[in-house]
Amino acid sequence: MKSRTRKWGLLTAVGILSAIAVLGFTWSRYLGKVHQHCIKATGMAFRLYSQEHAGALPYHTNGFGDALLLLVKDQLLPNVSGICGPGDNGVVLSNALARGTDVPEEQCSRVYVQGLSESNNSMICVLFDRHSVPGGDHFYGRGKPIREVCLLDGSMQTIGDAKWPEFSRQQVELLIAAGWTREKALTYYPAAAPIK
Questions:
Q1: In the chain, N or C terminus with fewer CB closer than 10 Å?
Q2: Structural domain boundaries of the chain?
Q3: pTM summary value
Q4: What per-residue confidence (pLDDT) applies to 98?
Protein backbone atom coordinates (compact mmCIF):
# COMPACT_ATOMS: atom_id res chain seq x y z
CA MET A 1 0.00 0.00 0.00
CA LYS A 2 2.84 2.38 0.87
CA SER A 3 4.59 1.76 -2.45
CA ARG A 4 1.36 2.44 -4.32
CA THR A 5 0.85 5.75 -2.43
CA ARG A 6 4.47 6.64 -2.99
CA LYS A 7 4.16 5.83 -6.70
CA TRP A 8 1.11 8.10 -7.08
CA GLY A 9 2.79 10.84 -5.09
CA LEU A 10 5.87 10.61 -7.30
CA LEU A 11 3.76 10.64 -10.49
CA THR A 12 1.79 13.62 -9.21
CA ALA A 13 4.99 15.51 -8.36
CA VAL A 14 6.49 14.76 -11.78
CA GLY A 15 3.25 15.89 -13.45
CA ILE A 16 3.18 19.15 -11.51
CA LEU A 17 6.86 19.87 -12.20
CA SER A 18 6.37 19.09 -15.89
CA ALA A 19 3.40 21.44 -16.07
CA ILE A 20 5.39 24.19 -14.34
CA ALA A 21 8.28 23.68 -16.76
CA VAL A 22 5.99 23.83 -19.82
CA LEU A 23 4.17 26.90 -18.50
CA GLY A 24 7.46 28.59 -17.64
CA PHE A 25 8.88 27.91 -21.11
CA THR A 26 5.68 29.09 -22.80
CA TRP A 27 5.52 32.23 -20.66
CA SER A 28 9.17 33.11 -21.33
CA ARG A 29 8.61 32.75 -25.08
CA TYR A 30 5.45 34.86 -24.81
CA LEU A 31 7.29 37.58 -22.88
CA GLY A 32 9.97 37.59 -25.56
CA LYS A 33 7.32 38.62 -28.12
CA VAL A 34 5.64 41.35 -26.10
CA HIS A 35 6.76 44.57 -24.55
CA GLN A 36 9.69 44.95 -26.89
CA HIS A 37 8.75 48.49 -27.85
CA CYS A 38 8.39 50.14 -24.47
CA ILE A 39 6.70 53.51 -24.87
CA LYS A 40 7.24 54.17 -21.14
CA ALA A 41 11.01 54.06 -21.67
CA THR A 42 10.63 56.48 -24.55
CA GLY A 43 8.62 58.81 -22.31
CA MET A 44 11.51 58.81 -19.86
CA ALA A 45 13.95 59.47 -22.73
CA PHE A 46 11.87 62.51 -23.76
CA ARG A 47 12.06 63.84 -20.19
CA LEU A 48 15.85 63.36 -20.06
CA TYR A 49 16.27 64.95 -23.49
CA SER A 50 14.28 68.01 -22.41
CA GLN A 51 16.40 68.36 -19.27
CA GLU A 52 19.55 68.34 -21.39
CA HIS A 53 18.13 70.77 -24.00
CA ALA A 54 16.63 73.64 -21.97
CA GLY A 55 13.15 72.09 -21.93
CA ALA A 56 12.93 71.42 -25.68
CA LEU A 57 11.97 68.03 -27.07
CA PRO A 58 13.72 66.52 -30.11
CA TYR A 59 13.15 68.41 -33.35
CA HIS A 60 14.49 67.80 -36.85
CA THR A 61 13.80 69.77 -40.02
CA ASN A 62 13.60 66.51 -42.01
CA GLY A 63 10.62 65.30 -40.00
CA PHE A 64 9.68 63.45 -36.86
CA GLY A 65 11.38 60.17 -37.85
CA ASP A 66 14.76 61.90 -37.82
CA ALA A 67 13.81 63.70 -34.59
CA LEU A 68 13.09 60.37 -32.90
CA LEU A 69 16.52 59.08 -33.88
CA LEU A 70 18.04 61.87 -31.79
CA LEU A 71 16.98 59.91 -28.68
CA VAL A 72 19.13 56.99 -29.81
CA LYS A 73 22.00 59.17 -31.05
CA ASP A 74 22.09 60.94 -27.67
CA GLN A 75 22.13 57.48 -26.01
CA LEU A 76 18.88 58.14 -24.14
CA LEU A 77 17.51 54.91 -25.62
CA PRO A 78 19.72 51.84 -26.16
CA ASN A 79 18.27 51.14 -29.62
CA VAL A 80 15.35 51.97 -31.91
CA SER A 81 12.85 49.55 -30.35
CA GLY A 82 11.33 52.23 -28.08
CA ILE A 83 10.50 54.44 -31.04
CA CYS A 84 8.98 51.55 -33.02
CA GLY A 85 5.42 50.39 -32.58
CA PRO A 86 4.34 46.80 -31.88
CA GLY A 87 5.15 44.44 -34.73
CA ASP A 88 7.82 46.76 -36.16
CA ASN A 89 11.26 45.12 -36.30
CA GLY A 90 12.97 48.51 -36.52
CA VAL A 91 14.68 47.95 -39.87
CA VAL A 92 13.72 51.33 -41.33
CA LEU A 93 14.99 53.29 -38.33
CA SER A 94 18.07 51.09 -37.82
CA ASN A 95 19.08 51.45 -41.48
CA ALA A 96 18.64 55.22 -41.37
CA LEU A 97 20.71 55.39 -38.19
CA ALA A 98 23.50 53.23 -39.62
CA ARG A 99 23.58 54.95 -43.03
CA GLY A 100 22.90 58.50 -41.91
CA THR A 101 19.85 58.76 -44.17
CA ASP A 102 16.51 60.42 -43.53
CA VAL A 103 13.52 58.51 -42.16
CA PRO A 104 10.32 58.88 -44.19
CA GLU A 105 7.58 59.76 -41.68
CA GLU A 106 5.05 57.53 -43.44
CA GLN A 107 7.28 54.51 -42.71
CA CYS A 108 7.36 55.16 -38.95
CA SER A 109 5.13 52.87 -36.89
CA ARG A 110 4.93 55.47 -34.13
CA VAL A 111 3.97 59.09 -34.72
CA TYR A 112 5.92 61.75 -32.87
CA VAL A 113 4.31 65.17 -32.43
CA GLN A 114 7.42 67.33 -32.68
CA GLY A 115 7.68 71.02 -31.89
CA LEU A 116 6.72 70.86 -28.23
CA SER A 117 8.58 71.55 -25.00
CA GLU A 118 8.14 70.64 -21.36
CA SER A 119 6.35 73.96 -20.82
CA ASN A 120 3.36 72.77 -22.87
CA ASN A 121 0.28 71.13 -21.34
CA SER A 122 1.35 67.80 -19.81
CA MET A 123 -1.75 66.09 -21.23
CA ILE A 124 -0.58 66.56 -24.82
CA CYS A 125 0.29 63.27 -26.47
CA VAL A 126 3.81 63.41 -27.94
CA LEU A 127 4.09 59.84 -29.26
CA PHE A 128 1.52 57.24 -30.31
CA ASP A 129 1.20 54.01 -32.26
CA ARG A 130 0.27 54.82 -35.85
CA HIS A 131 -2.03 51.78 -35.98
CA SER A 132 -3.88 49.93 -33.26
CA VAL A 133 -2.99 46.30 -32.65
CA PRO A 134 -4.71 43.66 -30.51
CA GLY A 135 -3.32 43.99 -27.00
CA GLY A 136 -0.89 46.79 -27.87
CA ASP A 137 2.76 46.30 -27.02
CA HIS A 138 2.20 44.91 -23.53
CA PHE A 139 -0.10 42.08 -24.62
CA TYR A 140 0.69 41.91 -28.35
CA GLY A 141 -1.79 39.78 -30.26
CA ARG A 142 -4.17 39.31 -27.34
CA GLY A 143 -7.21 41.42 -26.58
CA LYS A 144 -8.93 44.37 -28.18
CA PRO A 145 -7.11 46.62 -30.66
CA ILE A 146 -5.48 49.54 -28.85
CA ARG A 147 -2.90 52.23 -29.41
CA GLU A 148 -0.37 53.07 -26.78
CA VAL A 149 0.26 56.77 -26.32
CA CYS A 150 2.90 58.72 -24.42
CA LEU A 151 1.91 62.03 -22.87
CA LEU A 152 4.21 65.00 -22.42
CA ASP A 153 4.64 64.18 -18.73
CA GLY A 154 6.12 60.79 -19.73
CA SER A 155 3.09 58.73 -18.71
CA MET A 156 1.48 56.09 -20.93
CA GLN A 157 -2.16 55.43 -21.78
CA THR A 158 -3.92 52.91 -23.96
CA ILE A 159 -6.70 54.07 -26.26
CA GLY A 160 -9.12 51.65 -27.91
CA ASP A 161 -10.31 52.08 -31.48
CA ALA A 162 -13.78 53.25 -30.39
CA LYS A 163 -12.26 56.07 -28.30
CA TRP A 164 -9.53 57.08 -30.75
CA PRO A 165 -11.59 59.74 -32.65
CA GLU A 166 -12.56 61.49 -29.40
CA PHE A 167 -8.99 61.27 -28.08
CA SER A 168 -7.81 62.76 -31.39
CA ARG A 169 -10.29 65.65 -31.13
CA GLN A 170 -9.09 66.40 -27.58
CA GLN A 171 -5.47 66.35 -28.73
CA VAL A 172 -6.21 68.72 -31.60
CA GLU A 173 -7.80 71.18 -29.15
CA LEU A 174 -4.79 70.91 -26.80
CA LEU A 175 -2.43 71.61 -29.70
CA ILE A 176 -4.52 74.61 -30.79
CA ALA A 177 -4.38 75.92 -27.22
CA ALA A 178 -0.57 75.53 -27.48
CA GLY A 179 -0.55 77.84 -30.50
CA TRP A 180 -0.82 75.37 -33.38
CA THR A 181 -3.16 75.84 -36.31
CA ARG A 182 -6.03 73.39 -36.64
CA GLU A 183 -4.67 72.29 -40.02
CA LYS A 184 -1.26 71.44 -38.58
CA ALA A 185 -2.81 69.56 -35.62
CA LEU A 186 -5.03 67.56 -37.97
CA THR A 187 -1.97 66.32 -39.90
CA TYR A 188 -1.12 64.33 -36.76
CA TYR A 189 -4.71 63.43 -35.90
CA PRO A 190 -6.73 62.98 -39.10
CA ALA A 191 -9.33 60.98 -37.14
CA ALA A 192 -10.37 64.29 -35.58
CA ALA A 193 -11.37 65.83 -38.91
CA PRO A 194 -15.09 66.43 -39.35
CA ILE A 195 -16.83 63.85 -41.54
CA LYS A 196 -17.90 65.40 -44.84
A1: C
A2: 36-192
A3: 0.79
A4: 93
